[in-house]
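Hi R.,

Quick one: here's the Transposase sequence you asked about.
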Amino acid sequence: MKYAFIERNRRHWPISVLCEVLEVSPSGFHQRRQRAAQDKPQRSRVSNDALLAHIKAIHAEVKGEYGWPRMWKERIR
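And here's the predicted structure, written out as tokens:
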């Protein structure tokens, strides 16, 4: 809970000040951020390639007439 507060307010106050007020160590906060970043699933290159193939197929199907807003809606179908 304390680390979440620090994360939300770190652009308004220095991390060292927030950590001191909440009685946590700055190193503990940074370690928590590192662990959280490692736990997030990374997008794989395969999924990006599959998405690109899908976009190219839609683009060819509509003969290049759709812009990005219509392509975005089309990918949902």
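Helices lie at 2-9, 15-22, 26-39, 45-61, 68-76.

Cheers,
M.
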